[in-house]
């Protein structure tokens, strides 16, 4: 199976786990699952299981017992009502959910699929746990920060146009800096980044490539910083900010 077909199977894991598909689409996904190698099949099964567990946890958190009277009314109506199929063929002007879903960010899926898949095998009554490593590349540090459970994000306008976005995680002790539509600094000048936690700490000078990078720039050492600032400095940077351009507040 080609890499694109293999990736398509992983992308379909969400709608498969949610049963948000027609019968023919489900059969197609299951056929793709049988065609991939054992590692990819294990990764797909782990991803579907993770989605099921997440949904179950969310339901358990919000669950509340229905009043007895309401429960009985619903059960009475179910018993006397004709049941309709839960999945119908879609009208020609409706696009299936899974096609829209592929356009969304998949960073959390990549993180799960690139992790090692645990395979449990029973041998002679003894449970043996082995680990098969995925063929996918490990998620980048930036992807791990953005996908962290405690990840937060702050965005601010940049003088002269564009925005600065900082994704940060206390558990990872790092931030991912992304500039969108921000012009290069004047000749002989540079953008310098700062962690601010009482007094500014330099987080480095941005290169031209970092300013235009689509994947963002990872900066370690978040510590207890409550703000992240950008300043315009001489090329090479300054020990302290001299011309602050914008500052973002980092919540706890």
Your description of this structure?
The strands form 3 sheets. A 4-stranded antiparallel sheet has the order 3-4-5-8. The chain has a 4-stranded antiparallel sheet with strand order 7-6-9-10, with no helix packed on it. Strands 1-2 form a two-stranded antiparallel sheet. 36% of the residues lie in helices and 27% in strands. A hairpin with a 2-residue loop joins strand 1 and strand 2. About 19% of the residues have low confidence.
What structural keywords apply?
single chain; 252 residues; 4-stranded antiparallel sheet; 27% strand
Helix content: 25-40%
Tertiary shape: elongated
Q: List SSEs in N-to-C order.
A: HHHHHHHEEHEEEEEHEEE
Q: Percent of residues in beta strands? A: 25-35%
Question: What topology emerges from the helices and strands here?
Answer:
Blueprint: H1 3-11, H2 13-18, H3 23-35, H4 38-62, H5 68-80, H6 97-101, H7 107-114, E1 117-123, E2 126-132, H8 141-147, E3 152-157, E4 163-169, E5 174-180, E6 189-197, E7 199-205, H9 208-212, E8 217-220, E9 227-234, E10 244-249
Concise synopsis of the structure shown:
This protein is elongated.
């Amino acid at each position: 199976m080609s890499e694109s077909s293999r990736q398509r199977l992983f992308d379909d894991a969400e709608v498969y786990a949610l049963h948000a598909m027609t019968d023919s689409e489900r059969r197609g996904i299951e056929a793709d699952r049988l065609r991939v190698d054992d590692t990819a099949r294990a990764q797909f099964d782990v991803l579907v299981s993770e989605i099921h567990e997440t949904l179950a946890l969310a339901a358990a958190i919000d669950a509340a017992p229905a009043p007895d009277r309401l429960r009985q009314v619903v059960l009475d109506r179910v018993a006397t009502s004709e049941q309709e199929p839960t999945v119908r063929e879609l009208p020609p002007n409706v696009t299936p959910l899974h096609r829209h879903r592929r356009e969304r960010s998949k960073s959390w899926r990549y993180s799960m699929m690139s992790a090692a898949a645990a395979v449990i095998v029973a041998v002679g009554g003894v449970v043996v746990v082995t680990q098969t490593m995925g063929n996918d590349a490990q998620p980048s540090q930036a992807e791990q920060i953005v996908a962290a459970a405690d990840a937060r994000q702050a965005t601010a306008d940049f003088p002269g146009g564009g925005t600065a976005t900082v994704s940060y995680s206390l558990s990872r002790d790092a931030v991912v800096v992304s500039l969108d539509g921000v012009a290069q600094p004047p000749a002989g000048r540079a953008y310098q980044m700062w962690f601010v936690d009482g007094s500014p700490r330099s987080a480095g000078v941005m290169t031209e490539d970092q300013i235009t990078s689509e994947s963002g720039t990872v900066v370690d050492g978040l510590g207890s910083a409550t703000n992240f600032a950008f300043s315009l400095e001489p090329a090479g940077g300054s020990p302290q900010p001299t011309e602050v351009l914008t500052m973002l507040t980092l919540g706890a």
